[in-house]
Amino acid sequence: MSVTSWKTRSSLTQEILSHLGLASKTAAWGTLGTLRTFLSFSVDKDVQRLLRAIAGQGVDRGSIVDVLTNRSREQRQLISRAFQERTQQDLLKSLQAALSGNLERIVMALLQPAAQFDAQELRTALKNSGSAEDVAMEILATRSPAQLQECLMVYKHNFQVEAEEDIKCETSGILQELLLALAMGARESYSGIIDYNLVEQDVQALKQAEGPSTEGTWVLIFTQRNPEHLVRVFDLYQRYTGHELEKTVHHLFHGDAQAALLSLASVIRSTPLYFADKLHQALQDIKPNYQVLMRILISRSETDLLSIRAEFKKKFGKSLYSSLQEAVKGDCRSALLALCRAEDI
């Protein structure tokens, strides 16, 4: 088979898979983001277009959104550096001065390196009462080991304190234990082989961990076992008890601890569904939670937003794109729709 023929067949295979319900199987291939590397990328043209957008009579918000939501994060960083070299001005500060409101916040997030954005979101969550079990859990539980390590390094550099120290100061109890364990990044990697003896042991341990001073068992199993193992633990637990593990969590735990364990269980069962639920919740209020929408759509746009869209449509009977169209108002609407990318029929 010729190289050209192989590439054509490979491309066709990926195109077919992108339309099938194989999100969890193909995410590692990098085919499930809505935003990919722009093939006709010209850093000089993009710099010139952004300069024209902010230097004219009025700010051309459409051009700014078009450039930044059609380039990968790596390409956006190249644009930012080239803008500085050619104009001796900081692109982020220049756009910050030209924009306002939610669109300004989205553009600032798009121009930041991923680790810097995550570090800032994590810091804000830990310092704001009531956010730790939600936002901190989201970041610490859904980022890859490499992404998490970089985030924590940036956190220390930017705020002159280890994230673990802030976790200890701002949280307590099981929530603190869960966040610290996740921050350590000690979750086992999947070897391709399921240890069914360990699955059985974990199920029995969780069944017995229903009294005082047994929280450590939940923390250890939820934060150290790999997701493939844990899904089997959840299934076997339900077969033995007749109900889902989440029902036991509701019965045994309360407040932040309950919310954190339920969020972690949701991530383990299906990360795309976890994010679909969060997006749906963010759209339910009279005024959408733009910070949640922005954080999820930007952070997942190059990984699994197609999978999230599919889960959203499947569970809520309506596409994410249509839901954003109806709920989101103002200048930021075009940016969020561009990141979502398209309607799901």
UniProtKB/TrEMBL annotation:
<dbReference type="GO" id="GO:0012506">
    <property type="term" value="C:vesicle membrane"/>
</dbReference>
<keyword id="KW-0677">Repeat</keyword>
<comment type="similarity">
    <text>Belongs to the annexin family.</text>
</comment>
<dbReference type="InterPro" id="IPR037104">
    <property type="entry name" value="Annexin_sf"/>
</dbReference>
<keyword id="KW-0675">Receptor</keyword>
<dbReference type="GO" id="GO:0001786">
    <property type="term" value="F:phosphatidylserine binding"/>
</dbReference>
<dbReference type="Pfam" id="PF00191">
    <property type="entry name" value="Annexin"/>
</dbReference>
<dbReference type="InterPro" id="IPR018252">
    <property type="entry name" value="Annexin_repeat_CS"/>
</dbReference>
<dbReference type="InterPro" id="IPR001464">
    <property type="entry name" value="Annexin"/>
</dbReference>
<dbReference type="GO" id="GO:0005634">
    <property type="term" value="C:nucleus"/>
</dbReference>
<dbReference type="GO" id="GO:0005509">
    <property type="term" value="F:calcium ion binding"/>
</dbReference>
<protein>
    <recommendedName>
        <fullName>Annexin</fullName>
    </recommendedName>
</protein>
<keyword id="KW-0106">Calcium</keyword>
<keyword id="KW-0111">Calcium/phospholipid-binding</keyword>
<dbReference type="GO" id="GO:0005544">
    <property type="term" value="F:calcium-dependent phospholipid binding"/>
</dbReference>
<dbReference type="GO" id="GO:0005737">
    <property type="term" value="C:cytoplasm"/>
</dbReference>
<comment type="subunit">
    <text>Homodimer.</text>
</comment>
<dbReference type="GO" id="GO:0005886">
    <property type="term" value="C:plasma membrane"/>
</dbReference>
<dbReference type="InterPro" id="IPR018502">
    <property type="entry name" value="Annexin_repeat"/>
</dbReference>
<keyword id="KW-0041">Annexin</keyword>
<dbReference type="InterPro" id="IPR009116">
    <property type="entry name" value="ANX9"/>
</dbReference>
